[in-house]
Amino acid sequence: MPDTPDALTPAQIDTFVTDGFVKIENAFSADLAAQGRAILWRDTGCDPDDPSSWTMPVVRLGGYYDPPFREAANTPRLHAAYDQLVGQGRWIAPQGLGTFPVRFPSSETPGDDGWHVDVSFGLPEDDPNDFLSWRANVKSRGRALLMLFLFSDVGPQDAPTRIRKGSHAAIARQLLPFGEAGLTLRQLSADGYASTAECEEVSATGPAGTVYLCHPFMVHAAQPHRGTQPRFMAQPPLMPRDEFDPALPPSPVQIAIRNACNLNV
Prior knowledge:
Number of strands: 13
Largest sheet: 6 strands, antiparallel
Distance between the termini: 26 Å
Strand content: 15-25%
Structural class: alpha+beta
Number of helices: 7
Order of helices and strands: HEHEHHEEEEEHEHEEEEEH
């Protein structure tokens, strides 16, 4: 790809392959983050100046296509990073962002804080209304990246997403024997992701405008909010343009899978 000062460095790409994620600060502007928060605050039904209105530990909002969200997802810096991690011409520019699990300071357990992998497709025989029947396969059909967009400052107490560093490799090995059909979320989670239990845990913290680009097999989880200000974050996929093409040079996403499965021979 053309040289650009905003592209990821070779060291960052190597880190992505090994660890399964890369953190990009200033991926979009603080002004866009503030514009997005204003829209999200409106839709939570809560008053930003009245903590007594923050009665739920999490308010889950759907996809958003307003200009601040489209622009945040499509900055030149992020486009360059998408090219480097997924491959030029192999991804679809996001038309918006979502979902947004807005997390509020609370002593309650949010109820959605278990470890998981994001799944992306179903088979004709699967029940489309049963989310646990959705699947992932070793080619990561239907998902090029998992992305975390921070629309507010997120510190260690502000319910940052938990990431199991390097867990993408264990999931790749787990999926390999099951080919195109892959495994359902129910099957993947049956043992509580025991193969990744020893992975180092990293918190997705940073100032508003930070983006974490993660391997689609990354095991991650929410956690309770023990801070003072609500946390606003989007967790969209980056969608692939086409199915895996073995005629093309492997992208870092694919190299990570091949390395994990000892297929680079």
